[in-house]
Every structure is written in structure tokens, then in C-alpha cells.
Amino acid sequence: MAGDRAFPAAGAAAFHGAGHPADGRGSLVFLYSWNGYGYPTQWVGWRNYQLIFRNSAFTQAIINNGLIVLVSLGVQIPLALWLATMVSTRIKGALFFRLIFFLPYVLAEVAAGMIWRFVYDGDFGLVAGVSHFLGVEAPFWLADRNVAMYAILGVIVWKYFGFHMMLFIAGLQAELLEAFQQDDLPRARAVNDRIYPLASVFYSAPWVDMHNRMKEALVMLGKLPRSVVRPPLMPLGDHEKQRIRAALLASGLLR
Description:
Strand content: under 5%
Largest sheet: 2 strands, antiparallel
CATH superfamily of the largest domain: MetI-like
CATH topology of the largest domain: MetI-like fold
Strand order of the largest sheet: 1-2
CATH class of the largest domain: Mainly Alpha
Mean pLDDT: 79
């Protein structure tokens, strides 16, 4: 039935973006009833989206993704900036704390999941141990539909704030801060002239290409054999590569 193929068609459109690449109608695949095989032929118009937006699981998924975005912008990034300002200077133990804060990001997702499954376990986990020590009943946060999402948001902040912290540290640059603190403006200007060209290129719109730009720069510097771009992202165009090369030349990293 057409309804059985509505969700695969909408899902294919959402994942692939351009739709079926081998057909002239590929960019309009979301307007067809399609099971994912062969060519879409049965036109249904906007019915796919009418069906999917009436699905409670889909709308809840949108809400959950919205919460992740809000927490990332309102908690994760400010926390990363605050910690970056603390550990970017050459104070005793700064490198140790950088390592500790960045460690969650380099952990495999499976390992992180196992760690937090133990932490949240209401029978034998860390939460259970603290609850028993305090003489209160241990909560089962992952089993409570009113709390589970917030528990997961906490894990997301823990897992990824270190990545943003390292980006902020790279932008702050201890050498630049020290130059300002010592009122050494010529030295600060020289450091800024190295940082600004790269930062203005790497952290420009579209933001989803930031990582790809950095990989392309590593290729130009001979640190990577090639830059691999995974779907749904697209390879950088020649104009973008020229901007990266110009920034590397301006910063003195490429000669």
C-alpha cells in the first residue's frame, strides 16, 4: 500500500537530501511513494510529510533534538569557554586538567555508554551507592520517562564539552594572553596575525564544514594523505580550498 511506503520515502529524503541520485526526479523523491528500490513513480505530493508529522514518535524526536541543541548552546559551550579560560594559561597543572577534561571526548561511545549505565544503575551503580549512603531510596533515572532525557543530556554535555574547550583554547592561545598581560603589544600583534587568518576561514559559515576545512588544511600541510568527507556532508569546492590555502600562507604555516 502507498501508506506503507510513505515513511521510507520521507526518511530517504531526509537522509540523502538530494534523493535518488540516478534519476532526474531525485531531488523530489520525498513527493513520491517509494520503498527505496528502483525508481519512484507513484506521486503522493506532500502526503509523506503529513503522515510523518502526525506521528507522535517523530514529533517527540524533534523535541528531544531541540533540547539537545538548547543544552549544547546554553550549557555545553559556555562551560567549555569558562574552563578554557582557566586552563589556557601556563599555570601549574593546566596540561593535566586539559587532558582530564578532553578525555571523555576521545572515549568510544560504547565505553561512555557502559560507564554511564553503571553510574545511573539504581541497583549497583554510583547513584545507588550514594543514595544508600545517604539513607534514601535509589532512583532509576533511565527508567523514568520524566527524567531519562535530562540524564542523557548530562551525558552529552560530559562527552562533548572537552572538544569545544580545546577549540576555545586554540582560539585563546596562551601566548597571546601572556603578551597582553605583559603589555607586549608587538608580540600580541604578531601572534594575532598568525591566528586570525585561520580562525576567520575555519569558523565561517556554513558551520558544518568546520571539521572538513581543518582536515583539508592538514592535507595541504602534508599531515594527512587525503581528506575523507562522509555523507551527508559534501566535499569542499575549489573556492573553499583556495581560501584555506590563502589562510595558511597568511599565517606562515605554508610557504
